[in-house]
Amino acid sequence: MLILFYPKDLTFSIYKIIILIESLTLLKFCKKRVMKLAERTKIWIADKMKELMKTKPLDKIRVTELCRFAEIERPTFYYHFKDKYDLVAWIFLSDAYDTDVISAESAAKGMAKMRQEFIFYKRAYDDVSQNALWQYMLEYFVKRYELIAKEKLNVVFQPRAVSKDYIVTDNEE
């Protein structure tokens, strides 16, 4: 017959480890829940912005009006976005992120989604004030295509300076 003896400290240590594991599990659950809540809040605000933009252009919408319409406080809006232009850019980037720019099928789905929300994208794109959507689009797609090209070609690009010799103008003879 085998008899095991456990020192008192070992039993206490096992108990502490169990409590620690339970605490970490709860912490992970809470972080996931907070992330999901933050993401849902952003989506809620974005949906309300899209609804507002069906009735008026972006430059006529104020953050206060959007907050009232979305039934949120202004600090909640500013917790998630810098301004309304940041929100519009987030909407675009969220939609564009799901689109594989190399796949024709994925690109077609992305364009179909944009077509469903045509008024939003038209008004966002027509806005020429600060942080215009076309600037975000250009920057996003240039970076994305560059990354894809690097992957496909397995090459490291070295940016080159552009000299005057490569610039073509209408006045050249």
Sequence-ordered SSE layout with sheet pairings:
Layout: H1 8-53, H2 63-70, H3 74-80, H4 84-97, H5 104-116, H6 118-126, H7 133-153
Helix pairs in contact: 1-2, 1-4, 4-7
3D structure, described in words:
- The longest helix has 46 residues, at 8-53.
- The relative contact order is 0.08.
- Helix 1 (8-53) packs across helix 2, helix 1 (8-53) packs across helix 4 and helix 4 (84-97) runs parallel beside helix 7 (133-153).
- This protein has helices at 8-53, 63-70, 74-80, 84-97, 104-116, 118-126, 133-153.
- The chain is globular and about 50 Å long.
- The chain has seven helices and no strands.
- It is mainly alpha-helical and 173 residues long.
- Helices cover 68% and strands 0% of the residues.
Structure characteristics:
single chain; 173 residues; mainly alpha; 7 helices; 0% strand; disordered N terminus
Terminal-residue CA separation: 105 Å
User: How does the major sheet shape up?
Assistant: none
Helix share of residues? 55-70%
- Classify the secondary structure makeup into a structural class: mainly alpha
Q: Roughly what fraction of the amino acids lie in strands?
A: under 5%
**SSE sequence, one letter per element:** HHHHHHH
TL;DR of this structure?
The chain has 173 residues and is mostly helical. 68% of the residues lie in helices and 0% in strands. It has helices at 8-53, 63-70, 74-80, 84-97, 104-116, 118-126, 133-153.
